[in-house]
């Protein structure tokens, strides 16, 4: 073949490849955060097809978690513009080369803490923060360093390996789990973050024992899930601590035995709890995200054998100072992301447990809104009126 002809042929081939690529680009609705502290803008974006080892998902339902709000207001560092959201359920639309664990049509939950199954952490029996895919690297990009989202010709960042405030998203294969096809997306989306985080913090991270006394600081969606975990583990006394007394009725329904509002006392909340329990609780959980309540929760647990778990996400720039005596006298202080679960293997099992009615999610879902009303959903969270709002597409 003549050299010129070969060149022309190659050019045609490249043109065809480009066309195929653009044919596969999906235009869809997404809620973008253009700048810190600004409302979400509902706009049309382009979602590129999944590359090798990646999965494109049609989102069916997504919950609003306080961690998303931490990113909106800048207390959790995030690069803008960005598509937030990390608590969702959806259906696989297409897969890139080499993907074996899911296929188009599978019902799935995106995983903000991925599980590659091969790194040191994934191979360790207790580790759950995959070292190959760092959920918190703050780059807002796919593992290859690029984005699959475009708005007005410019790249938009991903969030927490998931980005679910969009009709379509792309995630790495290690950040998605296949679940029971019959599971209701508008409920089990909570297994993508809030429920699993709270429940796991009690049953896996703390390993609450039957007959123990627990204190849960913060009775939002995650805190109430901690309460459910403590109850399931057989705790005999569960003290709920919140500054919003409107949270107490539901907390009691779910197993809280005593409700305490720090505003009702003129002494530190740890003194109140130590008095109530004659020395301190066995397990305490901070599920708010404030450094002061983290140290108060630590001080509330019994010296010698008390364990305190940090579940709340403190501002990126914060530091804690505390008296070393608090630990010297025997308390244990720990924390966990996603309730210590190894995500890809645990999420399908948690969905099966939900289907087998081993726990309920209904009490956590106070509001369901169409996706377009995302700003209203965030207002409900900020004003303390909602536990979880689920957005439907
Ligand atoms: P939420 O806002 O629904 O609940 C927080 C609760 O804390 C509310 O009921 C507040 O009234 C209450 N509260 C606020 N300030 C105080 C105070 N000073 N004393 C007592 N109570 C107070 O949030 P959420 O349940 O969605 O999330 C809770 C935290 O957990 C938040 O920081 C979030 O970012 C973090 C989180 N962590 C993980 C993880 O993997 N560790 C996952 C998901 C969420
Ligand atoms: Zn969350
Ligand atoms: Zn890994």
How would you characterize this protein structure?
- This protein is α/β, with parallel strands linked by helices and 393 residues long.
- The protein folds into 2 domains: 3-192 and 361-392, Quinone Oxidoreductase, Chain A, domain 1 (Alpha-Beta Complex); 198-337, NAD(P)-binding Rossmann-like Domain (Rossmann fold).
- The chain contains 12 helices and 17 strands.
- It has helices at 3-24, 66-72, 120-123, 185-188, 194-206, 221-232, 248-253, 269-276, 291-300, 325-328, 343-355, 374-382, and strands spanning 26-32, 41-47, 54-63, 87-95, 107-110, 149-151, 154-156, 168-172, 176-178, 213-217, 237-241, 258-260, 283-286, 307-310, 332-335, 365-370, 388-392.
- The strands form 3 sheets. Strands 3, 4, 5, 8, 9, 16 and 17 form a 7-stranded mixed β-sheet that branches. A 6-stranded parallel β-sheet has the order 12-11-10-13-14-15, with helices on both faces. A 4-stranded antiparallel β-sheet has the order 1-2-6-7.
- Strand 10 (213-217), helix 6 and strand 11 form a beta-alpha-beta unit.
- Helix 5 crosses helix 6 and helix 8 (269-276) runs parallel beside helix 9.
- The chain is elongated, with a radius of gyration of 23 Å.
- It starts with a helix and ends with a strand.
- Residues 65, 67, 86-87, 193-194 line the site of one zinc ion (ZN).
What is the topological layout?
Layout lengths: L2 H22 L1 E7 L8 E7 L6 E10 L2 H7 L14 E9 L11 E4 L9 H4 L25 E3 L2 E3 L11 E5 L3 E3 L6 H4 L5 H13 L6 E5 L3 H12 L4 E5 L6 H6 L4 E3 L8 H8 L6 E4 L4 H10 L6 E4 L14 H4 L3 E4 L7 H13 L9 E6 L3 H9 L5 E5 L1
Parallel strand pairs: 10-11, 10-13, 11-12, 13-14, 14-15, 16-17
Antiparallel strand pairs: 1-2, 2-6, 3-4, 3-8, 3-17, 4-5, 5-9, 6-7
Helix pairs in contact: 5-6, 8-9
The structure holds 5-beta-D-ribofuranosylpicolinamide adenine-dinucleotide (PAD) and zinc ion (2 copies).
5-beta-D-ribofuranosylpicolinamide adenine-dinucleotide (PAD) binds next to helix 2, helix 5 and helix 6.
């Amino acid at each position: 073949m003549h050299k010129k002809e070969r060149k022309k042929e190659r050019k045609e081939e490249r043109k065809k490849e480009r066309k195929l690529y653009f044919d596969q680009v999906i235009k869809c609705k997404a809620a973008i955060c253009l700048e810190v502290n600004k409302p979400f803008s509902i706009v049309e974006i382009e979602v590129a097809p999944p590359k090798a080892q990646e999965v494109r998902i049609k989102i069916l339902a997504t919950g609003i978690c306080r961690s998303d709000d931490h990113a909106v207001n800048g207390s959790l560092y995030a690069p803008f513009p960005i598509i937030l959201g990390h608590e969702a359920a959806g259906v696989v639309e297409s897969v890139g080369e080499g993907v074996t664990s899911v296929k188009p049509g599978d019902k799935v939950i995106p995983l903000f803490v991925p599980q590659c199954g091969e790194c040191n952490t994934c191979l360790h029996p207790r580790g759950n923060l995959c070292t190959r895919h760092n959920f918190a690297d703050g780059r807002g990009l796919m593992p290859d360093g690029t984005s699959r989202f475009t708005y007005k010709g410019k790249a938009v960042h991903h969030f927490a390996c998931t980005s679910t405030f969009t009709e379509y998203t792309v995630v790495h294969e290690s950040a998605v789990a296949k679940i029971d096809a019959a599971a209701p997306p508008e409920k089990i989306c909570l297994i993508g973050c809030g429920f699993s985080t709270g429940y796991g913090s009690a049953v896996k991270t703390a390993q609450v024992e039957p007959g123990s006394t627990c204190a849960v600081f913060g009775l939002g969606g995650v805190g109430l899930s901690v309460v459910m975990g403590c109850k399931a583990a057989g705790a005999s006394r569960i003290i709920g601590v919140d500054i919003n007394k409107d949270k107490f009725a539901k907390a009691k329904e779910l197993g809280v035995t005593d409700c305490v509002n720090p505003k009702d006392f003129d002494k530190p909340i740890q003194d109140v709890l130590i008095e109530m329990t004659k020395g301190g609780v066995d397990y305490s959980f901070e599920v708010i995200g404030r450094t002061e309540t983290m140290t108060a929760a630590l001080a509330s647990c019994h010296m010698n054998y008390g364990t305190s778990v940090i579940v709340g996400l403190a501002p990126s720039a914060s530091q804690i100072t505390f008296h070393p005596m608090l630990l010297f006298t025997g308390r244990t202080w720990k924390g966990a992301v996603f309730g210590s679960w190894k995500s890809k293997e645990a999420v399908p099992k948690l969905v099966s447990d939900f289907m087998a009615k081993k726990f309920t999610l209904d009490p956590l879902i106070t509001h369901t809104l169409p996706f377009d009303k995302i700003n209203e959903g965030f207002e409900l969270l900020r004003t303390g009126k909602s536990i979880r709002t689920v957005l439907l597409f």
